[in-house]
Amino acid sequence: MRPSLYSVAQQEIAALLRDLRTKRGLTQAWVAAQLDRPQTYVSDLERGVRSGTLLQVRELAAVYDVQFVAFARELEKRIARATSKTKSTAKPGDSKGSRRG
How far is CA 11 from the centre of its chain? Predict the structure, then answer.
């Protein structure tokens, strides 16, 4: 079974959040303090265990000093790249387009 778009998107947003934080040399604890949240909140977002709302993700982008539009563009690129990899590794006949009904 291939992963749903939701799970791919969830994985990519988690990875992007983690990448932004680590590239800036920030700890989860520091980020959490900026958001007035527990460290486990940041950890859960970065592991894809928790989904953030649009406003929460916007807050995180601001903490990482990234414009939300730039964040969204990067996320879309990552999702497109990940979904194209998923499609290219699918077995022939696995896609919905190949079914007759």
Answer: 5
Per-residue pLDDT tens for 30-61? 999 999 999 999 999 999 999 999 999 999 99
Using alpha carbons, list the distances in angstroms from residue 12 to 5, 8, 35, 59, 73: 10, 6, 21, 18, 12
Return d(Cα 68, Cα 10) in angstroms, integer: 17
**Entry pTM:** 0.79
89 closest CA partner among 77, 78, 81, 100: 81
Six-digit token pair at 70? 């730039």
- CA-CA distance, 95 to 83, in Å (whole number)? 13
**DSSP string over 38-84:** -HHHHHHHHHTSSPPPHHHHHHHHHHTT--HHHHHHHHHHHHHHHHH
